[in-house]
Write a structure and sequence with these properties.
10 helices; 307 residues; five-stranded parallel sheet; alpha/beta; 32% helix; disordered N terminus
Length: 307
């Protein structure tokens, strides 16, 4: 999800590897340098492990959602972030309309690195080492259709949901003025259809900026949301990203209590180690005192001195 488009690539020096010419040396050696993608990009965009993890997640999304439909007992939606959420920004809207009829089932998805892989844009970032550029991202958002690939498992997962009568809705932080490009990319990847204002909601559709709670509330007016998926906690509720500097508290919030019960049970996280709100935290914040270890005998390797 492109809430925070500051890539790990901007923080990781691009490594190089040199190869020497094998011919006779008649002058200075010719050195060819090949840029290496950051490890996070290698994992997400190039590894079989990432493909397997994504397929596994998408299979779980479809299996869970279809099981809910078969049970047909959802007087309330899955908990989701709402502007007026009753408990810490989280609410469970009713699945019954004012006239007493049932709302149709829907599953809500982030787009970037949840449904689509932004391989073209990330390649450019890795190649150049440039920080995020809003104009370049807008060009990609408008013209990346056909290059952006589906997340492994997404095409089959979305097809299974639609065949079960579940409406697929996209809630992304791509800008509303790039709606046509978003629709084209989603459909070119085989994950569509998407209709702006109906099954596609974008940043700029309301006055809440990158926060998605308002869009979630709009969706819940007409649908019974039985599942949500994304690659960032803000894809589920804005409360998780309210204080991104509170590293330990943010992790604890999602890993314990009522929120912990939702992962795999209506909420599904798609792996994305490349960018996101998680890109915060000093060494001390990531490793609290009780988790630290040092080898004996001290803080630094033993050095030997000769007389």
């Amino acid at each position: 999800m492109k809430q925070i488009l500051t890539l790990a690539a901007s923080a990781v020096a691009l490594a190089g590897c040199a190869t020497m010419s094998s011919g006779p040396v008649t002058g200075p050696a010719t050195v060819a340098k090949e840029k290496a993608a950051p490890d996070t990009m290698r994992w997400l965009y190039g590894s079989g492990e990432a493909a397997a993890a994504s397929i596994q997640t998408w299979r779980q999304i479809a299996d869970y959602s279809i099981a809910v439909v078969h049970q047909r007992k959802a007087p309330q939606s899955v908990p989701l972030g709402l502007p007026d959420g009753t408990t810490g920004g989280i609410g469970t809207p009713s699945c019954i309309k004012a006239d007493g009829t049932a709302k149709p089932f829907a599953a809500v998805f982030d787009v970037d690195e949840t449904v689509l892989l932004n391989t073209g844009y990330e390649y450019w970032q890795a190649l150049t080492g440039k920080p995020f550029d809003a104009d370049e991202w807008a060009q990609w958002a408008n013209n990346g259709a056909g290059i952006a690939q589906p997340v492994p498992g997404a095409v089959t997962g979305l097809r299974r949901l639609r065949e079960a009568g579940i409406t697929v809705i996209f809630n992304t932080n791509r800008e509303s003025d790039t709606a046509a490009g978003a629709v084209a990319a989603i459909e070119a990847a085989g994950t569509g259809p998407a209709v702006h204002g109906q099954t596609l909601f974008l940043r700029g559709d309301d006055d809440m900026g990158s926060r998605k709670d308002g869009r979630r509330a709009k969706i819940a007016e007409n649908y019974c949301v039985i599942a949500m998926a994304g690659d960032n906690l803000g894809d589920f509720a804005d409360v998780f990203n309210a204080d991104e500097s509170a590293i330990a508290a943010r992790r604890t919030m999602v890993a314990r209590g009522e929120y912990a019960q939702l992962w795999g049970n209506g909420w599904f996280l798609v792996p994305n180690p490349v960018y996101g709100a998680w890109q915060k935290g000093t060494l001390d914040e990531v490793f609290p005192p009780e988790t630290r270890w040092k080898p004996s005998p001290g803080d630094a390797p033993v050095t030997m001195t000769r007389p």
